[in-house]
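Notes, p. 3: input format for complexes.
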Amino acid sequence: MVLTLLKAKPERKLAKQICKVVLDHFEKQYSKELGDAWNTVRDILTSPSCWQYAVLLNRFNYPFELEKNLHLKGYHSLFQGSLPYYPQSMKCYLSGTPHRMPSERHQVGNLKQYYLLNAASLLPVLALELRDGEKVLDLCAAPGGKSLALLQCAYPGYLHCNEYDSLRLRWLRQTLESFIPQPLVNVIKVSELDGREMGDAQPETFDKVLVDAPCSNDRSWLFSSDSQKAACRISQRRNLPLLQIELLRSAIKALRPGGLLVYSTCTLSKAENQDVISEVLNSYSNIMPVDIKEMARACSHDFTFAPTGQECGLLVIPDKGKAWGPMYFAKLKKSWTT
Ligand code: SAM
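Output follows (338 residues plus S-adenosylmethionine):
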């Protein structure tokens, strides 16, 4: 069965079309923000055949046979031994060459064995350093990739997954049910709040908070099929930093003193990344940046990072032969004093 899973899919016609208005917009903005690196980033972003999907193994239905086959296929294990915090229970594999495993079909009564993802999306999860028994909030959780990754790292005492969009909330529930055993699903709280209200609803409750914010999502925006809507988003994009800051304010309120918060996006945009974090750091005296430069050094074999000018913020950029980005993440700590 595993061998069937590993068989490459027949080459499909490339359905993805690049949306020219969006590419032109990126060209102007990102050539300024990233300088020479933009040329490579653009080449990778516009070539879906170069995107490398990582394979996150599910510790709740561990695929030993599949793991052997991944080794035979030349996949290597990500992060092992390199990061200051790396839970042995999280196993993620990446191929040295662009390759995408087929997605697994859900079979009633069987948990899925692996989840395909952008490997860079594990970095914000790892930066959170989740330990067994901690209370954790995933403020913008659908479709659930990062919630699932959090549960590969540790057994939180309480996991609260929130998602504002009701359709995406269904998708989140499906992810949890397909990968997580029922007794554990039962202790996960799922809510449908506007994340901006969470701080008032549950002040100073959580040891750890993840804000994987709604953002420009460069990769999917670039391949929008409706160019009129895509063009509309260029002006709507200006409103995103305000929403992101409001979500962060709410997250800070929900965090207990001494707790850790990680903010992440999948855009290259400085306005939605570094500027949002600078704004928050400038307006709170009890929020401190946490230095995460060591993470970049430790995993530079698999990821390329662009300079952010921040010790607490890293930006993974798409690069040849590396796990894909974009993924920005920043780590903050709430101090005990106000
Ligand atoms: N963390 C998810 C994962 O790893 O699978 C991806 C999250 S996605 C980047 C951002 C999510 O935020 C979207 O599902 C979006 O519907 C949700 N969102 C948008 N506005 C929100 C709000 N005001 N409160 C909470 N979630 C919101």
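The radius of gyration is 19 Å.
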